[in-house]
Amino acid sequence: MPALVCMLMMSLGLGGAPFRRGDVNADGRVDIADVIEGLMWLFDGGAEPPCRDALDANDDGLLNVADPIGIAHFLFASSPMAPPVDACGSDPTGDRLSCRNFPPCTCIDPVLTHDQVRQLIRGKVEELRCYPCPVGTIDIPLIGKLVVCPTGRACSNGKTGCDVEIRTLELDLDLAGGWARLRGEGEMLDVPVELHDLLGGVSHCVANAWFAADGVLSLGTEPIAECGYRKILRAGLYDIENIEFGVEFSGGAGCAVLNAVGDLFPSIFKKSLKGRAEVLIAGHTSAITGIFVRP
Predict the structure, then answer these.
(1) What is the pTM of this model?
(2) 133 and 256 co-located in one domain
(3) What are the two backbone dihedrals, phi and then psi, of residue 54, each rounded to the nearest 5 degrees?
(4) Most buried residue, 51, 165, 250, 283, by most Cβ within 10 Å?
(5) Which domain holds residue 197?
(6) How do residues 110-163 score in pLDDT, each as one tens digit?
């Protein structure tokens, strides 16, 4: 045993990474696996711990059988270990034990899960709930001009515009593939519209519309291999796909004409939605760029 201790002491080097005492295998927790890993390295040629300081349970600057025993006593007999134990930190004694790498403390925190990223993106999409007035002006061949949600209309959130009710919102996220697909379904009810016909007349109508669409985002990511997660470097709107759209108009005689040309509106809706989504995403890419996501 003395020879082994001397050999270990001669091989000790300087180090300085933050760590947690007792987490010998650096997996983010202290358990029986750490006791076994320490014993295997000391006496059976096992892999060297990434942070020797983590094995030094009693912080005496030496690595020997007392250290795995100290970790076992901490686990099963509530015996204390030298700090840092409950949180990442440096060795308070400043001995010469090395700490080459300790991912649970050196990796960025917080790291988001896929569900948390979904919630983050959903929160940004929620801002689509109020289309600003006017939503759009549409030229209809041989009929006239349609103004959707004229100026002066107020959304339920107090902003000027027309309410959009988003019924469902689902997100498929593939960080390694570099894309995210956002599927949304919703409706716009009791939307005021004005039809300005070619003779100068104005018909005041009400529109009820429903829609579904996929927003495809392109993501640039890089793996942080030693930490087991990926970093989002950039995000942007790639396309709006799989659009379904329907609308019905009610009101005067002029409004009935709009129902006869309903096939025009899906392509108009796609152009409007894509424009809004591009503006929204361009203004909020910082919300998801630079974040770290665990697979």
Answers:
(1) 0.56
(2) yes
(3) -65, -30
(4) 51
(5) 114-293
(6) 678 878 877 777 666 666 678 778 777 888 888 889 888 887 778 887 888 888
